[in-house]
Amino acid sequence: MGRHLVFIGAGHAHLTAITNLARYTEKGHNVTVISSGAYHYYSGMSPGMLSGLYTPREIRFNVKRLTETRGGEFIEDNVLSVDPAKRVLRLKSGKSVDYDVVSFNTGSEIDTGPVDASFDNVFKVKPVENMFTARCRILELLKKGPVDIVVVGGGPAGVEMAANAWRLVHDKEGDAAVTLISRGKILHRFPAKVRKRVVKSLTARGIVLKEDAAVDRNTGEVFHMVNGEEVPFDVAFVATGTKPSALFAESGIPTGPDGGLSVNGYLQSVKYPGIFGGGDCIRFEPRPLDRVGVFAVRQNPILLHNLEAALSGGDFREFKPQEVYLLIFNLGDGTAVLVRKSLVFGGSLAFKLKDRIDRKFMKVFQLSGELEESVDCDSWK
């Protein structure tokens, strides 16, 4: 007798399984995908969408069509709570969905800290769709005169957003000031030579760096700093670190210190065998993992196999994360900085490598006519 498999979120760790739904449906199982939107956007190309290097259609997957053409049911909704004992999901719409096996890939959300992101000109860098809305806002403001753009957050996301906001303004021959605010030193967790390259690149383009500068509060027009300084803005981006959703803790499911779903080496809940997860929303108990896309991508085949084993029987496969991984930062001017352990180099070659890797990843899963779609600021929803 068939069982019910439910995917929550259509992020990087679920794409292989959703692409191969026939693995489950051919054995008589029912599959449902629940996601907040019909599209999933690739965060690795998000800064490039802000600058205009990539169009929305180039960095997204039509998960609804991908699901339905492979025999699954797609529900556009959000999960508000989980009853792991009864195996029931309660949705924002008021509906309930039963499951036998469920897998979560709900990503992470921005931990805004003291920043009030409720203003319509303050954009959290997640969800990725925000970046196209921000692009449209900046383009509209540039028609009227000078624009002050502020990015809060000195990590990789903040650096890439500041650099690509500059690219957007530069390409449109607009007049704007770009400021990057960092509570500590920019990219302080990375080797000194990475920081040196990035700082040199940003300052050479006139991007103002405010390091060791903490935000106290903000209005819709000004950041009030702890040191008493005021930083005005017309558009602001918040890239102040991420955290998993509170969904798991509020549902009584074991989590790590950060609220991520606690999973074992099989990407399975440490308490509830019918619950699995991958990507930024989990706490991998064998060892903590950085929130980088490479782990989610490499969890793809493990989840594909283990979900099938949970439904139909068979041995589980263990996820063995790599110790060393590659990071490449898009600096918005046709260059990038590549980091792999002690290896660091930058320039146009680094960006070309990033672009090639990203486009290759997109090509694998863009199977639903995404590149034939057209999106502009007037039609964007």
Question: What is this structure's SSE topology?
Answer:
Blueprint: E1 4-8, H1 15-19, H2 22-25, E2 30-35, E3 39-41, H3 46-51, E4 60-62, H4 63-68, E5 73-76, E6 79-83, E7 88-91, E8 96-98, E9 101-104, E10 109-110, E11 122-124, H5 130-142, E12 147-152, H6 156-171, E13 176-181, H7 192-204, E14 208-210, E15 215-218, E16 222-225, E17 230-232, E18 235-238, E19 242-243, H8 247-250, E20 261-263, E21 275-277, E22 282-284, H9 293-312, E23 327-330, E24 336-340, E25 343-347, H10 348-365
How would you portray this structure in words?
The protein has 381 residues and is of the alpha/beta class. Among the domains are: 4-36 and 77-108 and 244-312, FAD/NAD(P)-binding domain, CATH 3.50.50.60; 111-239, FAD/NAD(P)-binding domain, CATH 3.50.50. It is 28% helix and 25% strand. It is built from 10 helices and 25 strands. It has helices spanning 15-19, 22-25, 46-51, 63-68, 130-142, 156-171, 192-204, 247-250, 293-312, 348-365; strands spanning 4-8, 30-35, 39-41, 60-62, 73-76, 79-83, 88-91, 96-98, 101-104, 109-110, 122-124, 147-152, 176-181, 208-210, 215-218, 222-225, 230-232, 235-238, 242-243, 261-263, 275-277, 282-284, 327-330, 336-340, 343-347. The strands form 8 sheets. It has a 5-stranded parallel beta sheet. The chain has a 5-stranded parallel beta sheet with strand order 11-18-12-13-14. A hairpin with a 5-residue loop joins strand 23 (327-330) and strand 24. The longest helix is centred in the C-terminal third of the chain and has 20 residues, at 293-312. The radius of gyration is 21 Å and the shape is globular. The model has no long low-confidence stretch (mean pLDDT 96).
